[in-house]
Queue: 2 jobs
Job 1
Amino acid sequence: MSSSSDASEGGYFDVIIIGAGISGINAAYRLQTQLPNYHYVILEGRRNIGGTWDLFRYPGIRSDSDLFTFGFPWNPWKKQNPIADGESIRKYLEESASLHRIDGHILFNHYLSLASWSSTDRLWTLTTHSNGVKKLFSARFVVFGTGYYDYQKPLDAVIPEIEHFRGQVIHPQFWPEDLDYTNHQVVIIGSGATAVTLLPAMTPKASRVTMLQRSPTYIFSVPNRDSTRSRIGHLVPETWYPKLKRLAWVIRSYLFVFFCRRYPNAAKKLMAKSVIKQLPATIPFDPHFKPRYSPWDQRLCFCPDGDFFKALSTGKAFVETGVIREVVSDGIVLASGTKLDADIIVTATGLKLQFGGGVKIEVDGASLAISDKFIWNGVMLQDVPNASFVMGYTDASWTLGADTAAHFICRLLKYLDRHQFSAAVPCVPSSAVLVDTPVLNLNSTYVRLGAKNLPRAATQAPWTGRKTYFQDMAWAKFGRLDQGLKFMGCASS
């Protein structure tokens, strides 16, 4: 392993996992279960387990998919509420890591800045910084369980004259612990899951909460209690029940997305009927709840037990649809002339997409331009040896995709060992003519703006992104490993 005079040695590992969130913890479990002789470590830049669930602390923070599929299959979510708050999820992750002694493999406060691959040594050298000390680690294989957005910087939102506002401007990604919004007027700019979560959470204490959206989104109420046990719990052995419940929720989610994509007009009518039934008479369906796009062109927003619509019925929560003309000292003026008084403005305008945690990646001394490279089967990157980038789904729980990636990683490592290969690298044949397609199948504003930070995907296998959980898991366990992959012998060969 390479070293320098100003760096200390972190050591050699068979596998280094970047990130101690859901992706990293799950990868660690699969690795230590399927390859128990492998020596691994998790490098986490923050002080705690949790990733997203340690970062976001805004009021009402919760999952936007059910915990029966968002949770780990090897430590099922045991509570009956499918949608859970952020603190409960963070504790669940800590419990899961502790239960299988994964937490003993985590090095906190280790921020990774550079990952450099040497084809000569067949090794990765990782440069980290911990409490001001530079440390170098080396590994045969690296797993990037870093999520999909920038933890340090949110998406820049262009809000006219925002500097004129005399009150507080808050971004949910960096919510102040001491923010007191009691009896204050709050305007939330945005219409995604964060805004839909914030409105009902802030309404009880604030004097008035307004969600200001440029265009509406689909908001669908779901009961926040599982009824699977009452229907099938008495029919199956207790040990089978968690697996069957998870499978039932996976199938349910898949069928709902399939229905929405296959029959968009019917899905629109279904959701419109649900919304109209819950709206107070003072708030019209059109224009506030009639999106211009089809369901799942952008991610749906789920509200547990209709909490969003219950907040609207209090008379303290409102929705406005329009374009901002300017921000003034005490509020926001829309192009229509309507003024929204505000003491606090919350900019819930989206995340800044990022691939690989923003880490600088080098292959044999050459910097890698991620946006120029194709994704390989949704888990590896063109011309990057012995590295996996964990990606979830845009229309299902993230953990489902993370688990298919973890199974693939273990299978690939076993394959390398069995055939005495030292490395595998995805390579696009020089004769290939690939047709580009978005790596994420959403057209949300933050996805379109962040596409330049993501790898490319193609319509042709194996240079495709995520498909469905069932397809991806079948491929991870049984699919061809030689299509598009080049294998290297030992470093000494």
Job 2
Amino acid sequence: MSLAQWWRNYVLESPLVSLGWLYLVQGIPYGLQDKFIPVQLRSLGLQYSSVSLLKLLLLPWLLKGLWAPVVEVGGGRKRWLVASLLALALTALAGSLTWPEDLTGVGMLLLGLNVFSAVQDVAVDGFALLVMPDHLLGVANTIQVVLYKVGCLIGGAGLTYLLAFTSWSTTFSLLALLYAVTAIWATCINTDTRLSVATTKREEKRMNTSQDAVECEEDSVDKCPIGFSGIKGIGWLSIYVLLYKMGERGAINNLPLYLLDKGLTMEELAFWSGTVCQGLSILGSTYGGLILGKTNVSLKDVLIKHSTYRLVSIMLQCLAIYLIENKSLSDHMSFPFVLAIASMCWLSYSSGVISTASFTLMMKVSRECSRESQASHYSLVASQEVAGKLLFASMAGIIVDQYGLLRAFHLFTILCSLPILVLAVMPTHLLCLKRQ
């Protein structure tokens, strides 16, 4: 087999490889907005509230469900995918012409990246829903969450390290080049690859489903071509996806900025928050995908267990902040600082497991709808998830400025306890994975 044939057979025509790379590239703008830009702006003296209000520029992700039907029926997924990647390349190139002190320019840069990466997300999600059979949903969601977070790592710590050795203009020029190369590569992707095979496997799986899965299916729903109204218990899923990231994002976004105020350098923060924590989040997401692939593991148990771990980690962050504030510590090797960093790492790992399990839950419910509307439904649920973390993340900085960091973290702790209660009362059929 020639190198060209190997490249086409195992890279261009492999849905898993294609999905993995596209999700990785898609994660870069979020890492840029979540890690890279806030640290740059906070180092320039911006308040917590001003930094957190930039989260409102994630609004295009909230509106993703509105244009998902347009992407599905208007021009084909590949056309939208290539167009969005080219638009991302042009936006990054325009970003190379601005500078971090220009808040308007930075805001326009982030808005453009969010708009076009949200369009890309709709196209890629539709591709995943079409080509992945039921028994590979765990694998697909692991690839999605893990490589999306790798993209976040590149957009956060990666760009921070790159900026230390180059310049703002060079950093964004290289980002534009990455998007342009990906757009060219995307023109060669066959978005219908293995579609018939995946569909055949789904049909075979339905015919050979075990009795346990049949009982689970009987409690489930009929295929719904239009909306979620026909899915029994869907309200609990909506409440869960709105709540489950709120407290977590408040803590993850604000504790690193607090440590920056207390003397950590941007390079140290990039290492702990951008590299170590993001790496642990990726590890947690990988573990989540592996554990959900086992036949004797309950999705509900995984979510409740690691949501509890997340709650404990934020409680430890509250303790660390209390000790640092009351003892006026500045030694980075003191117990409170070590506790803050260790709990931040634990939170990142737990959130990784929760993310994979939650996206598996969301995709599982979307697969109950007709194939023509699966991507729209998944985008709608994902938009609810974005709404929860976006609206609160944009307000968290204001809460910190008005009431203090410790009181804000008390609120984050309460918010992290609510998803556990919702999971405890959520209907069983929504949390039941089909098994072969």
